[in-house]
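Quick question: what would this complex look like in 3D?
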Amino acid sequence: MKKTTLFFRGQVRRALVLFALLPFVALSGFPVSSARAATTELTNVSYDPTRELYEQYNAAFRTYWKNKTGADVTIVQSHGGSAKQARSVIEGNAADVLTLALAYDISAVEKAGLIRKGWEKAFPANSSPYTSTMVFLVRKGNPKNLKTWGDLVQSGVGVITPNPKTSGAARWNYLAAWAWAHQKYNGDEKAVREFMSRLFRNVLVLDTGARGSTNTFVRNGQGDVLLAWENEAYLALAEHKNEFDIITPDLSILAEPPVAVVDAVVDKRGTRELATAYLNYLYSDEGQRIAGKNHYRPSNPKIAAEFANVFDLNVKLVTIHDPLFGGWEKAQTEHFNDGGTFDQIYSR
Amino acid sequence: MNKEIWIPRLLTAVSIAFVLLMLVLPLVVVLAEAFRSGLEVFLRAATDIYTLKALRLTLTATAAAVLLNTLFGLTAAWAVTRFSFRGKGVLSTLIDIPFAVSPVIAGLVFILVFGRISPLHPFLEAHNIKVVFAEPGIILATVFVTFPFVARELIPTLEARGTDEEQAAALMGAGFFTIFRKITFPHIRWALLYSVILCAARAMGEFGAVSVVSGHLRGKTNTLPLHVEILYSEYQFTAAFAVSAVLVAAAVLILTARNIVEHIAHKEDDLNVR
């Protein structure tokens, strides 16, 4: 018996070595990335509600690029909650361009060293080719008669919004509600907090992204009102005719979803020219009209005017640069980071 | 007396009701939704370029998981049941990690190890190796979550068999591979096949870990389960259920294969006893 065990010792060692080598065998089999090959492939990492917009825009851009250079280009899309998407790029998701929900998320990528300073001015209109705002999507006929933010805190109103920790839309509509309350209570911060606290007590489901919330409200029938991107609300309306109404509150926020070229990635892949052209074309008349048709407000006022019958262009819009918020950096720290006002009002 | 008759009946009725409600009903709903807008819509969704690419990736990851885990499972089961060595207890505990750890955490670990924030990153970057947010990451994540299946199935089988025959063979001068081929393998082949099938089934359906390392790049790092979620998010409900139906079909195939294997294995066991 003892002898056999001895005899096996060498085998044990061999088996263990084989076992230890496995991960390396596994790794060596992996195809080396094709990044160096001269492919004209462009990766656009975007946020949730832009799926339909970029599907149409990419087709238009492919045609434009083909006519201009004769080259075919493949555009790879990725969609998800804005903060989550920025995170994935920081962690190594090789996006050539970022088209996110708010500047803060692109700044996070800048801080990680992937985007150079000054990207906000690299393209016209604060690098925001289209804007949007936050509206209410309510069930047909508005049975709970919800007109503005103040109506949302009544008892028995079920509110659906994504989670401000992960979603751009949620942060925009949180700030819109805050701005409304600030005006209503003449800047009495205690009253504003109390209002926000009541608002979030009415929230039934906090999804991680805007599209998840839309599905919760539209498809699964939860809640009485969805706080949504204007474009997302129109899209839901188009998908489900005669089931919903859009209510534009008297005050909302001007959401400027920005775009940026990811310098570290395009320099490595040699796609800077293509990436820049891709974002620039968003500002062309065709790009602007595609944005308008997808219910984004075109940043070019001339094209925006073509859609005056769709959008309520007269709604009072505060911006993130309003002294109340002082830009995304400040707003993020004050409201959404750990221990910020959102944590305070939500845990209460 | 009466009690003894109705208790098993009641239990059977409860289990059948449960199975119908929890397993059969959802499957029926998936199929009904998939074909709701007609066969043509179903076929268009099932043969869409992104669906096909997702299918290819899912099959690649499944094949890799089956291959690597079979290799690993065999070596690990062999090592744990045939030899005593220091750290044996640790090894057999480590094998179970993927069962205990949430797949999401597994995904995050891969991001930390192979992502841009990892200390390994400069090396990977210099050699142009992309792991996470690319196919290798998907494969790694799939391999990870299906890691224990083969080993866990083989260890009890090998333990039950004992080591007598192998020791006899060793005494008679048979080498490692001869022993494996002539004695060990014939005993475990059905258990091995069975575990491979389970491994494949789990690999095809993996969502959590893969979702974290995927980056959701359409046509590049989307597996079928991820593709279902994307379609669902894009209001393409019929297409989402059509792709789900493809996954269901694959699952049914795998289960059929499993039953056949079980059946044959039983038959052979009976023969062996005789």
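Answer marked as accepted. The mean pLDDT of chain B is 89.
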